[in-house]
TrEMBL record:
GO terms for cellular component: plasma membrane. GO terms for molecular function: polyamine transmembrane transporter activity. The chain crosses the membrane at residues 12-32, 38-57, 69-91, 130-148, 157-176, 196-213, 233-266, 294-312, 342-362, 368-389, 401-424, 430-450. Belongs to the amino acid-polyamine-organocation (APC) superfamily. Polyamine:cation symporter (PHS) (TC 2.A.3.12) family. This is Uncharacterized protein. Pfam families: AA_permease_2 (PF13520). It comes from Ectocarpus siliculosus (Brown alga). It is a multi-pass membrane protein.
Length: 479
């Protein structure tokens, strides 16, 4: 285990950690609406009730054990490198970074979708095209500049953003509960009946809203008493995320005022009741329940939440590239900090990926980032089990109270869900993700050659206790 984080003052306590994890995983119910249009209210509510048991809780438990065992910013790259050596550590870092960039490309799209919900329905920003993409690129550049300037959402700032972003949904739920006079809506199928369920969209959007628990690993070196704080924070955050998603959907689909607004839209030829539930629709739900003032607040909350999510993800992605460069996996230029404490080149690389992915639709991006994330997560699960067997005596401040067979059984449903998700991915998702991973495989020997021939400077990384030994490790751990 590395020494990262030892001797330094621990700055993150329980509630700041809960909020940092919350923003890594959720940030609010923004973007969950397509689950309703794809599968109807019943499966949407059941999904957010049961999928956390299958996926979120096992992933959070694995993160709690490995983050406290490896309290360093390298996070999952350190886990996989220790278990299987540098090539698989590289692939883990590469796939995680690609997935993070794809994830970050969604936040300007979501911001725009909530903004146009306040504009006329024939506004050009509602349609895919160069005009809309140009707006996404401008948002990306502006937000990337904020990340370059070193913007952070931590401590009291994180609490303030969370309160501002979530409070309108508290108002929506409390105001809307007395209006929930249509309980039959909660067991409804999507428009078109049970046979019209779009399983791919349903599973991918559900998964996207309930993953990235392992992002908490990057904070491990800064957490007070991680062996106690991490498990408690993760459990609290799972409960917060489930309530944050489930309650607004429960009220929004059962409220008579929302049903009346949807009926009016349907009579105007804008689609069926549930097909209206696309990203950004919560602003219209809020307006139907309380009036335009809450709809505007939801849009402003979405702006704050998506800006915070973008900044956190962009900073995390850039820091991951910096960390990989510091471990000798990338040229040293990626580790060079700019005037505001973060690598300018890492920001540019991440921002460029965000701009190109902005050409794709919301659901396509979600599928791509999910498939890349599934690859990285399977590596993490296998590394977790391998470390349980090969490094049994390694100090673990927190350990899942199950033996090797027990943790295998714990992870079996989650691994099965990953395979199911992959099976429902579209052809374009497989092609884009496959090409991206093949590029990663090809980059590895290219980077080794560049290091051996001294085409560019690479740093000599510190070897971590417990890392797999042998010749295969040498190219990444030192010259």
């Amino acid at each position: 285990m590395g020494n990262a984080g030892r001797g330094a003052k621990k700055t993150i306590s329980f509630w700041p950690l809960v909020l940092l994890i919350f923003y890594g995983v959720s940030g609010g119910p923004f973007g969950v609406e397509p689950v309703v249009s794809a599968a109807g209210p019943f499966l949407a509510l059941m999904g957010f009730l049961f999928l956390p048991m299958v996926w979120s809780i096992p992933e959070a438990l694995v993160t709690a054990e490995l983050s406290t065992t490896f309290p360093e910013a390298a996070g999952c790259v350190a886990w996989v490198s220790t278990a299987f050596g540098p090539f698989w550590g590289w692939m883990e870092g590469y796939a995680s970074w690609m997935s993070g960039v794809a994830d970050n490309s969604l936040y300007p799209v979501l911001f725009l979708d909530y903004l146009v919900s306040l504009l006329p329905r024939d506004n050009f920003l509602r349609e895919d095209g160069l005009g809309r993409w140009g707006c996404v690129v401008c948002l990306n550049l502006a937000l990337s500049y904020l990340a370059y300037r070193g913007l952070r959402v931590v401590g009291r700032t994180a609490i303030a953003v969370a309160v501002f972003s979530l409070l309108p949904f508290v108002v929506l739920v409390l105001w809307g509960l007395p209006d929930c006079t249509m309980p039959e809506s909660w067991i409804s199928p999507p428009d078109g009946g049970w046979g019209a369920i779009r399983w791919g969209t349903y599973l991918n959007v559900m998964f996207w809203n309930l993953n990235y628990w392992d992002s908490a690993a990057s904070f491990a070196g800064e957490v007070e008493n991680p062996g106690r704080t991490y498990p408690r924070a993760l459990v609290a955050c799972v409960a917060l995320v489930v309530l944050c998603y489930g309650l607004p959907i429960f009220v929004g689909t059962g409220a008579a005022s929302v049903a009346a607004a949807a009926a009016a839209a349907a009579s105007a030829g804008e689609g069926g009741r549930w097909s209206l539930w696309e990203d950004g629709y919560f602003a219209e739900v809020a307006e139907a329940i309380t009036g335009r003032w809450l709809g505007v607040w939801v849009v402003l909350a979405a702006a704050a939440a998506n800006i915070g999510l973008f900044e956190a993800e962009m900073t995390s992605d850039a820091l991951q590239l910096m960390g990989m460069a510091e471990r000798g996996m990338l040229p040293a230029v990626f580790a060079k900090r700019g005037p505001h404490g973060i690598s300018t080149l890492a920001i540019v690389a991440s921002s460029t990926g965000v701009a190109f992915l902005g050409l794709l639709g919301f659901e396509t991006i979600v599928e791509i980032l999910n498939l890349l994330y599934c690859f990285a997560e399977i590596l993490e699960f296998v590394a977790f089990i391998k470390l349980r067997v090969s490094h049994r005596d390694m100090h673990r401040p927190y350990e899942i109270p199950l033996g090797t067979v027990g943790v295998c059984l714990l992870l079996l449903p989650a691994a099965s869900f990953v395979l199911l998700l992959a099976a429902f991915s579209s052809v374009i998702t497989w092609v884009v993700s496959g090409v991206a991973l093949l590029i990663g495989v090809g980059l590895y020997p290219g980077l080794l050659l560049a290091k051996r021939e001294k085409w560019c400077e690479f740093r000599s990384a510190t070897r971590y206790e417990g890392d797999v030994d042998g010749a295969d490790n040498a190219p990444l751990y030192g010259n």
